[in-house]
Amino acid sequence: MNNHSITVWKVMQKIALEKTWNQDYANDMFILWYLHDIGKQFGYMADHAERWWEILKRSDYKYWQEVYYHWCVDCKYHSEELDLLNTADLQVLQDWKQVTVKERLDDIWLRYGVDSNPYKDCKQLAINLNLL
Question: What whole-number distance in Å separates Cα of residue 24 and Cα of residue 112?
């Protein structure tokens, strides 16, 4: 696991515990965090979610849709867990540092440009989550 992924997990756990004070739920969010980027561990950066959701669905993993739809800006599927995953991901830089959503957007803007899909998607996702 890279530092970015570990920090996303820490942010998810903090939000989950603040929201519910339920350790079982926080543990479920740990598993979701771990699975959401697992495709990256096998070298599938661009489509890491798409490569694993079908396996998770066949395995009856209850959050397979969250894995599939994370970072989806125009999907019709919605859940608290998906919001939690995306909110945490929007607050962590690639180098592991936890930041504001605005700082994350600035980082993506500097790396990819204001007209890039990563920047546009990140900004729209933050708007969809009412984080901007």
Answer: 38
Q: What pTM was computed for the model?
A: 0.80
Write out the two tokens for 64. Answer: 């397979």
Task: Give ∠ CA 39-43-44 in degrees, rounded to 5.
Answer: 55
Distances, alpha carbon 28 to alpha carbons 16, 57, 62, 81, 109, in Å: 10, 16, 10, 10, 32
Q: Which of 4, 27, 7 is nearest to 16 (CA)?
A: 27
Q: What angle do CA 105, 32, 26 make, to 5 degrees?
A: 95
CB 90 within 8 A of CB 101: yes
Residues across the chain: 132
Separation CA 89–CA 13 (nearest Å): 12
* Distance separating alpha carbons of residues 30 and 36, to the nearest angstrom: 10
Tokens representing residue 29 in the block: 């969010």
Q: Residue 62: beta bridge partners?
A: none
pLDDT tens, position by position, 13-55: 888 888 877 888 888 888 887 777 666 666 555 555 566 777 8
Counting Cα atoms < 13 Å in the Cβ hemisphere of 100 gives: 5
